[in-house]
Amino acid sequence: MFNEVSLLMLEHGTFSVVLEGNLLSITLLGTFNDIATLSACQQIEAKVESLNGQAFAILVNCIGYEGSTPDAHKISNQYLLWLNKINCIALASIYSQNIYADIVKNEQAALFELKNRQEFNDLQEAKLWLLSQL
What are 119's strand-pairing partners? Predict the structure, then answer.
């Protein structure tokens, strides 16, 4: 029975994780469950580890993001705690609507521990700010 149930659990949410130089770009689309969130976080961790301790910045494009399950938020929060301990020098998040930013901030307390973060509604503004931080 357990195997049948686990086969039915599918990844919800689409993402991409791209590392260009010292800029890690993450794009989130749709609504995320824990399976998709864990998969995204594992890809993020692999990219960060490939930097071998070099400083980096993160651009999180949430323009197409529509929310996450409580379990997905817990996983994200754990990875944010990890990011807080390594050489992430800046994080910019872009949201289409402020309500999504508010939900994330309510569910992921570790976000407030990041020393240098800003929220944007415009992708170009976010990129320019991040480049000024590197």
Answer: 93
Q: How far, in Å, CA of 124 to CA of 122, rounded?
A: 6
pTM of the model: 0.88
User: Tens digit of pLDDT for each residue in 3-35?
Assistant: 444 445 677 899 999 999 999 999 999 999 999
Chain segment 85-120, per-residue pLDDT in tens: 899 999 999 998 888 888 888 898 998 888 899 999
Neighbours of 13 (CB within 10 A): 23
Asked whether the beta carbons of 62 and 31 are under 8 A apart, the reply is: no
Is there a contact between 123 and 25 (Cβ–Cβ < 8 Å)?
A: no
- The span from the CA of 124 to the CA of 134, in Å, is 16
Cα–Cα dist 126/111, whole Å: 17
| Separation of alpha carbons 52 and 97, rounded Å | 35
Look up residue 115 and give its DSSP letter: S
Phi-psi region at 72: left, alpha or beta (left = phi > 0; alpha = psi -120 to 50): alpha
